[in-house]
Amino acid sequence: MFYLLHVILLTYLSNNLYSAAESSNRGEKNGQELLLCRKCGADVADSFYIFSKPSPGARKTEKQNLFGKQNVTVQTLINPFGVKFEVVTMEKARCDNIGPQQGADSWFPGFTWRICACPHCGQHLGWTFESSDKREKDHINSFHGLILANVLGENCKCFIV
């Protein structure tokens, strides 16, 4: 019970602190909905920055209506240990990138990856992918793959557990 109250309080404080710090821009939000860390409620991304970056390694790709947007590409990716992740790709997200860049087992050929963690609580949010060849014109240099199970929309009417 204490844990649930603690999470609710953190979510409330996080949302109110964001509102106070960004009150001048809050009415001019870039996107449809903010994405929050499911563990602590910190603001980690804006749905405006969702984009489709197909992975040739995706086991399943489908379109869903998420975070105030229609036809968001959701990919099911499986790591070498057999763990499944439903992922959306973002041009921008607030992440602490953990560890050195890894080239092995990247779901996106030509991109290295690092763990993307919530800057507030350290929760694993997904991965940051960076291009191995930054010289190529009209090429995306970096993006994020956020795990749907580890984020929620600010308008979600659900409990954080």
Description of the structure:
With 161 residues, the protein is mainly β. It has one domain (2-153): Peptide methionine sulfoxide reductase (Metal Binding Protein, Guanine Nucleotide Exchange Factor, Chain A), CATH 2.170.150. The protein is built from two helices and eleven strands, in the order H-H-E-E-E-E-E-E-E-E-E-E-E. It starts with a helix and ends in an 8-residue tail after the last strand.
- Number of domains as seen in the coordinates: 1
The unreliable regions are 1-28
The percentage of residues in β strands lies in 35-45%
CATH homologous superfamily annotation: Peptide methionine sulfoxide reductase
Summed up, the helix count is: 2
Count of beta strands? 11
Major sheet details? 8 strands, antiparallel
Output the CATH topology: Metal Binding Protein, Guanine Nucleotide Exchange Factor, Chain A
Radius of gyration, taken over Cα atoms and rounded to an integer in Å: 16 Å
The CATH top-level class label: Mainly Beta
Span between termini: 11 Å
Mean pLDDT: 82
Known CATH architecture: Beta Complex
Fraction of helical residues = 10-25%
- Give the ordered list of helices and strands: HHEEEEEEEEEEE
Global structural class? mainly beta
Principal-axes shape call: globular
Gist of the model:
This protein is mainly β and 161 residues long. Helix content is 15%, strand content 40%.
